[in-house]
Design brief:
2 strands; elongated; mainly alpha; Serine Threonine Protein Phosphatase 5, Tetratricopeptide repeat; two-stranded antiparallel ribbon
Length: 164
């Protein structure tokens, strides 16, 4: 006599065998519990590192002002729109209005992009704004436009040393 379970026709003896297999899988799955293996401890001693020394930063009022004054630039732009903008930007720099001076100097550079002194002034401005990477780039540009002007080359090299 055959019995039908779950659309399977199983002979009577096979039914008990199938039941035994299912029960053993069920019990085996419930009985086994995963436990991670313990981590092996290293046989050598672990290195100890000294802690970093604690440095005390003085309050801002006691920090001396180490911002060096730039060398005097006695270059005076002659005439024209770029010269007027350049002179205006130098005046703004002396007043400490760096952002406005930067905008004015950028306008002068758009008009006269091959003037090495304009690029040097932009480098000096970036240095004063605490952007040494940009200051070095502008110095290199100014130096490439300096040609035989040894004074401008020396000014750029000095500013590059300070920025680095």
């Amino acid at each position: 006599m055959n019995r039908t379970y779950f659309h399977l026709t199983v002979p009577k003896r096979g039914f008990y065998f199938l039941l035994f297999i299912c029960a053993s899988f069920f019990l085996h799955g419930c009985a086994s519990v995963y436990q991670p293996l313990p981590r092996p401890q290293p046989s050598y001693p672990q290195p100890t590192y000294p802690s970093a020394p604690q440095t005390r930063i003085p309050p801002p009022s006691t920090i001396p002002d180490t911002t060096p004054e730039p060398p005097p630039l006695d270059y005076e732009a002659k005439t024209g729109a770029a010269a007027s903008l350049y002179n205006q930007s130098r005046e703004l720099i002396s007043q400490g209005q760096y952002r406005q001076a930067e905008l004015t100097l950028e306008r002068a550079l758009r008009i006269e992009p091959k003037n090495g002194y304009y690029w040097y002034t932009m480098a000096d401005l970036k240095y004063r704004q605490n952007k040494p990477g940009q200051a070095v780039q502008f110095c290199l540009k100014s130096k490439s436009l300096a040609g035989r002007d040894k004074k401008l080359v020396r000014l750029n090299e000095a500013l590059i040393r300070k920025a680095q």
